[in-house]
Each structure stands twice: as C-alpha cells, then as structure tokens.
Amino acid sequence: MVKKARGLFWRASIRYVFLLGISVILAVLLNGIVIAGNDRVAQAADRIFAGQAVDMGKLLVGLSGLAVWGAVFSFGKSLSAGHYSALVSRRVRKQLGEHLLKLPCACFDERGAGGVLTRFSSDIGEAGRFYSEILPDLLVNLVTVVMVTGYFTRMDGRLILILFASYPVMLVVADKLSKKLARIAKGFRTRMDDRTEAAYDLIQGIEILRSYNLEETADRRIGTVIDDIADHGCKSTRISSMGWLLKGVLTTVPEVVCYLFALYEVLGGRITTGEMLSFAVLLGRVIYPIGDIVFCANDIRTAGVAMERLERLFNRPTEEEERLSACDFGGKTETYDSAEKGRNGDREETAISWSGVKFSYELGNPVLKGASFCIRKGETAAFVGGSGEGKSTIFKILCGLYTKEEGEYLLYGRRIEDWDIQAARDCFSIVSQNVFLFPESIFWNVACGKPGVSRKEAEEACRAARIHDFIAGLPEGYDTLVGERGVKISGGERQRISIARAFLKNAPIILLDEPTSAVDTGTEQEIQEAVSRIAAGKTVIVIAHRLSTVKSADRIYVLQDGHAAESGTHKELLRKKGIYANLYGKEVEENEKQSPCTGI
Known about the structure:
Layout: H1 4-15, H2 17-49, H3 56-102, H4 105-155, H5 157-163, H6 167-204, H7 206-211, H8 215-267, H9 273-314, H10 319-325, H11 339-344, E1 350-362, E2 365-376, E3 380-385, H12 391-398, E4 406-411, E5 414-415, H13 421-425, E6 428-432, H14 442-447, H15 455-464, H16 468-472, H17 491-505, E7 509-513, H18 521-535, E8 539-543, E9 555-560, E10 563-568, H19 570-576, H20 579-598
Helix pairs in contact: 1-3, 2-3, 2-4, 2-9, 3-4, 4-5, 4-6, 4-9, 6-8, 6-9, 8-9, 15-17, 17-18, 19-20
GO molecular function: ABC-type transporter activity; ATP binding; ATP hydrolysis activity; ATPase-coupled lipid transmembrane transporter activity
InterPro entries: AAA+_ATPase (IPR003593), ABC1_TM_dom (IPR011527), ABC1_TM_sf (IPR036640), ABC_transporter-like_ATP-bd (IPR003439), ABC_transporter-like_CS (IPR017871), P-loop_NTPase (IPR027417), Type_1_exporter (IPR039421)
Pfam families: ABC_membrane (PF00664), ABC_tran (PF00005)
C-alpha cells in the first residue's frame, strides 16, 4: 500500500525543515551556554576551595551575560519549533481538505460523517504530532544528550557507562508498553468515530428527537459511546502511568548511582569539587532527555494508529481515478474540459443517452439493473415509480456524484468518461425538494451558482425566482445570514433561493426533484411559475412523486425492478393500461378520498 499520508506529512515537514534546523541550532547554542556557565562555576568553586581569590563581580557579569543569551536562544528555539509545528499542521490539514473534496460520494456514505470528521480533526492532529512535536523534541533531546555526555567524558568516562546502564531495560519496557497502548488507541479511535457520529445525528435530528420525546433514547446512545471512550481512556492512562513510574525508577536509580560515584571520584582526587558541582547541575539535563528519547516510542506508536486510519482515507481512489478506471481503454480518449466544448462539438440532438446502465450501493444489491433511456435537447422527461426504484440514483449518476458500474452513459453524444467531471457538472442545474443552504448570506447562497457574479445579476435571478421582494424587505437585505441549513427562513423561501441559484447558473439541463412537494398551495404555484422561467428552452428532467405534476412531460419513464419498464406520454401510458395507468389510478382514487376532508 502506498503511504500517501506519510508522504504528505514528510513533504510538509521538509518544506519547513529550515525552522526545525533553526530550533536544533539554537538548542546547540543553548546547551553550549549552559555547559560554559557550569564550567565557569566549577572553576570558581575549585579556586574558592583551594583558597584562591575569585573576582565575583566579573563572574556575576559573565554569568548574567550567558543567562541573557540563554534566554534569547531558548525563546528562539521555542518560537521556531512552534512555528514549524503550526505550519506543518496547517499544510497537511489543507491538503487533506482538498483530498476530501476529491473523494467520491460513496466514501462518505461508507464512513459516515463521524468517521470523516474524526479523521479531519482528531486523527490528523494525533498523526501530525510525530512531525510537529515528537520529531523536534527528539532531535533537541539527542543534541542535548550528545553535548552533555561529551562534556562528562572529559571528567570521567565511567560516568557515561553508569548513566546508560539502564538504557537496554528502558528499551524493552518502552517497547512492550507502546504495543499495548497502540492496541487501546485503535479501539479508542473507533469509539471516537461513534461519538462524533452520535453527536452529529443528535444535532441534525434535534427537532425529531423532541417531537417524539426521544431525548432519553438519544442520551442513552451517546452515553454508551462516551462510557466506552472513558473506559479506553482509563486503560490508556493506567498503562501510561505505569510507563511514567518505570521511567522514573529507571532514570532515578542511575542518577543516584552517578552522584555517589562522582562523590567517590572527588574523594579519590580524580575529579575536582567544582567538576562534581558542574556534573550535579548538568546531570538533570541529560538523564531525563535519555528517558524521553526511549519512551517516545509510546507516542510514536499511538500516532501510528492515527496515521494508519489516515492512510486508508488517502488511499481511497479519488472521484477522477474511479472514473478513469471505468474507461474501456483504461484512460480518456479526449477530454471535454468545458461544457461549451462538449455540447457544441457537433450537432448532436440527443442531450442524454443511457444504455444498460447498472449500479448498486451495496455489493449484491443492485438498484439499477440495466436502465436505458434517451432524452433529446429541449425535451421534458420525467421518471416515476415506487420508492427504491432508482429515481434519485439516476440523478446522482447524471451529475457524476456516483459512477455507473456497467453500461453506457452519453452526454451530448460523448461518453461521460471522456468529459472533465467539472465540465460535465456545468451542464446541470439541480432544484431539489431537500434544499441545502450554506450558513452564509443570501447573496452568497445565490451567487455560488455562478462564482464571480455581480450583485445586479444575483438580484435579477432572485426576481425571476419570485424571491427578490422578500429579500429586499429584510433589514440586511441580501447580506442576511440564513443560518445553518437555512433554518432562519421558511421552506418556500429556501426553495426559491435554490431556484435563483439554478437560474443564475444557466445550465442547459435542469434536474427537478419535485421541488413543490413540501410547500403549501400558494407557495407551490409561485415555485412552479419560477421553475417554468428557468426551464424555458432547456432540457428538463423531473423526478415525480405525484404523477399529476408530469402529465405535460414529453416523455415519462416508469421505473420498476431497476430499469425503465414503460415509456411514453401521459396519454400513451394510460392507453397501455400498464404500470403507469395503475399508479395514476391509485393516485386519483386517493385524491378523491381526501377531498371531503380537505375541502378540495
């Protein structure tokens, strides 16, 4: 498996390696100052014990100067390391965001919002710790250990042997603990996905939860997940605490032995009292970094668990890669990189043609089993059928949100594989019954249909969608924020903003997922008039839940068992007395039953 995530982190690290280099250089200078200061103190102590005079003023001035430079170097080291960490994390998060936007929609269906959000927030932070925190600290600790042990060697090489005596034991202990922590981390990360998913569902479904008094059920669900996370956290804490305890023992014992041995060396006259004082001061600067170097294996393995999860996401083929693999010859023959080029390459009169298209969301459970149809330019075509027959799936494949598994899909006479996916999507405008608005201004939500559009053009689109007067009457007009998912405005207003967005895009093919299904009668008429304006002269494809709304369509396709079982005009299908006639008869009968109650 290609290590795409690791490669991404390494490239980001190399990009800012100069900051890491500055941090290491400043660490060298800082350690040099500490050693120099200790050396001066040791020499002064030896002179005092020998009964010689010491210029204390000069000593204090010298040490003060070293202290100032030490503070400067320490500040610079922390600053450069902090910037390195922030810049690496920023670059990786941006590139992960770009990668997420390129992934096929099926990836988000499989992993759910919780899995994707956890990887984007928690996993990338944990995996990035190796490059942004662990690696810099490791390098600085190595520099410190090398410099200080080098200084100790000048005194007595045997001190180094004692210092590193527990090193092999530390390695064995750290290895065993890190493996246990990695196993726990895998379970912890999985439960984090569940927690995020549960919280996301709770927020998205808060109205339903309260309407059906499901607060206790939701509380139990998220409470169970949180309890599991806490259990994993407690297990991890117990093992980590055991590691800290063993680390403390394995570093403290050599430290005490070193002190006793240094005292023994002083009594034997092999090192001076000043050198022992210097050794005592510097020992703490080397003994703990040694432990940190060894036990960083715990952090590395924990970060590795998050990295593995990111690898699975990064190794998922992008939307374009999936499309290329679906090509007959393993690649594109010609790329239609603009909607204009693809539509006007010849005088093809067919807008969309499908032949034997198959698709399934789950292996072994096909939704489309060989769908075939042909829609000419300027035609209005409708798809009808029962729930689960594939109407919405057809829309998703038309827009390139999902890739067909078998069959042929021609857009303006060109294979869909030969189109640039963004150019293909430029051919479509969608008006759905489930309108999604971004938590931005009304102008932003309209203008996103045509980036770079002027305020005047957006207003014209809103006039065509019969929404301008409403917007103009708001205190902040087009700058009014609609809230998350557009909750600050009504369903009909959201629908008309969606129509204005589609009008502004001015795509040649309009996809209508019965946009009037969830509004009142008065609003329905206004929306139908607005839809008629944007659909004038366009190819229109409609998903119909109410057959009465598509009686005027040029061609109606009746979906059953994953394919178009019938097709024709409304009158033709009624004369056939088949599936459509049966569905239409049931709808008429249902409407007649409701009339006495509704006053219709």
